[in-house]
Amino acid sequence: MSSKETMLQSICQYKKQSNTPLPEHAGFATIMYEDLFEQFSTALTSVGGKAVLLEDKTHLDDAIRAIAQEAEHIVCNVEGCGLSSDDGSKYATPHDVAHVDLAIVRGEFAVAENGAVWLDAASVRHRALYFLAQHIVIVVDKTQLVSTMHEAYERIGFDKAGYGVFVSGPSKTADIEQSLVIGAHGPKSGYVFLV
Amino acid sequence: MGHPELAAKFTQDVERTHWHDKALWFVREKRDRASKSIPEWEALRRKAQQIKTHTMENLDTYLEAFEKNAKAKGIQVHWAKNAEEHNRITLQILNLHNAKKVVKSKSMLTEECHLNPYLEEQGIEVVDTDLGERIIQFRKEPPSHIVLPAIHLKKEDVSKTFQEHIGTEAGNNDPTYLTRAARAHLREKFLGADVGITGVNYAIADTGGIVVCTNEGNADLGATIPKVHIASMGIEKIIPRLQDLAVFTRLLARSATGQPITSYTSHFHGPIEGGEMHVIIVDNGRSPILGSEHYSQALNCIRCGACMNTCPVYRRSGGFSYEATIPGPIGSTLEPCKDLAKHKTLPYACSLCASCSNVCPIRIDLHHQLYFHRQDVVKAGLLDKKKERALGFAGWLFQHPKVLDFCGKMARKVVPHLPRWMMYSSMNAWGEHREMMDFPEKSFKELYVERQKRKQS
Ligand code: SF4
Which residues form the LUD domain (chain A) (predicted)? Predict the structure, then answer.
């Protein structure tokens, strides 16, 4: 008997017969936020990130430059942002993006309750870009804000891309005596621009 | 050694015990604030419990659905009955790629399987990449907590360890400085690795993908730079639908550290360009727990660690006193399920205060389970002989009220006048660690009778 068969047999032998139904929907009436941006911004700030609301795309480049003056090697896949013509797709391996100072990437939508943004890897060639870049700026359409994770998961699918990630702020750790240090292995800062 | 002896060792350093207690209470308070920010928190917990219970009752169906959907996405799925098989499969995959360097992100399952020493014996370099895990890996210690693996260490300890292993400045205890040094050191490891191994927080049956949650981004780097990603999961990690994740991602980080969500919640549904992705599904003693009357809910655990942070015993005895991969209340019920004789002291590492059950995001009845385990320990004849005799005598005494009254009366008269050396001798196990209580002049029964008489007159 294969291990799979042995394991399934063991599970069938032991599992309980009583039948707890699967709730029809995981979601249910939940907390609703009046001002989604306000809540998103508060949540993101609490985890070490920062949210910026912009009128339109005309000032996007300046706004990003203002927070990342030193960044030399920039990769950008956001339409309407002119800080770099390199969208990262020319690199053959993830190792080649190890020197990126700043990644400016498209976020699909943002979640108010926890300051997370959904990044769908259909828009980048190397997933590692999100984590290897020293700094990250995520640009999201300001109409794409949802209240909670229940709404968020309704918008996600994996037919196009084999990978997607919720990013909430920069990478961080509190493994040394519970002191919070921003920038563990991944990006040392995490800005979200809602445009 | 059992829990009491190991705990005694930990509590010898009184100051450190208090410090450890406070550090965990700090996390517990953050959890409280985070949970109170969601008005539907209790409803979420009930929903999570229902989803998990349903899943465990139909586990075979969901595991098979997961396999089918994962394969369709180009993921290779393996099944391992036990730790040994899990390690063998991992090694096979590594050998196939001639891999010599592995970066690993935190996974309690690989810890349980003792994967690191197994691979190291084969000449493979395994680097734990979670900062806390890397610290304890240097120190050749196991994790003392499932979410905060190095919670038992002070920054001075970390500084010394790093000085020795990665050459940081002597006496520089600044957490930011130390973290930055580890960042540089680990970046090299990520970029030089052949294979990345991660754990699995959730496996989704209807999409055939897995989810990994971290704050540091280490699992993400490990799974997106090397060509090969191996993810190890226990059979209980499965959830039916993508939408169910909404419930669990809302509960997990808030319960674990008080954050609204982890910095990264990565959903892997296939390998990177030109790469391979493998998932190993592991039983290793889990399936028999599915059928147990009292303990089956323990398999619903999502490993948030909240029960440890709140446990008054864990906070004061430290993770190592449990001598188990998973310490704290959930470890104290899971480990005896697998080997009662070996872990017979764990159900007693509990004050039955029920705080663990109250904070558990999946509403696992942890304190009930520990209480049932105690009865199992007695039934199996595993109770310490001294305790068994004492309890046997107490049981007999309570069945003979006249004798009990008489003994009580004598004790109240005699004990307060006994010299200390006589009271606190080896005869009195209670007094070994505590002061005896003050003996009242009258028993409750006597007071009650007097009161009734007064009422009547
Ligand atoms: S038993 Fe509950 S509280 Fe404890 S780690 Fe598991 S899910 Fe968290």
Answer: 95-195
Give the model's confidence band at A29: pLDDT under 50 very low, under 70 low, under 90 confident, else very high: low
- Burial (CB count <10 Å: 0-12, 13-18, 19+), residue B393: exposed
Using the Cβ of B283 and the Cβ atoms of chain A, whether some distance falls under 8 Å is answered with yes
Average model confidence (pLDDT) across chain B: 94
Q: What is the DSSP letter of A58?
A: G
| Confidence check: pLDDT of A144 > 70 | yes
d(CA B42, CA B44): 5
Q: What's the B331 CA to ligand 1 centre distance in angstroms?
A: 9
Adjacent-strand bridge partners of A163: B268
Secondary structure E strands in A16-113: 50-53, 74-76, 102-106, 109-111
| Residue whose structure tokens are 């994790």 | B143
Give residue B427's pLDDT: 75
> By the 8 A CB rule, do B209 and A158 touch?
yes
Q: Between A and B, how many CB-CB pairs are < 8 A?
A: 264
Question: What is the pLDDT, as a whole number, of residue B256?
Answer: 96
First vs last C-alpha separation in chain B: 60
Which amino acid is present at A44?
L
Which of A132, A153, A177 faces B155 most closely, judged by CB atoms? A177
Whole-angstrom distance, CA of residue A126 vs CA of residue B224: 8
- Residues A104/A105/A107/A108 CA torsion (nearest 10 deg): 140
pLDDT tens by residue, B1-48: 899 999 999 999 999 999 999 999 999 999 999 999 999 999 999 999
In angstroms, the Cα distances linking B297 to A115, B53, B240 are 32, 7, 17
Residues paired with A139 in a beta bridge: A106, A193
The two three-digit tokens of residue B61, written as one number: 């169906």
Estimate to the nearest angstrom the gap between the alpha carbon of B199 and the chain centroid.
15
Q: What is the DSSP letter of A74?
A: E
B44 SS3 class: helix
Torsion angle, CA of B53/B59/B61/B65, rounded to 10 degrees? 100
Asked if the Cβ–Cβ distance from A131 to B224 is below 8 Å, we say yes
Any idea what DSSP says for residue A109?
A: E
Tokens of A149: 């994770």
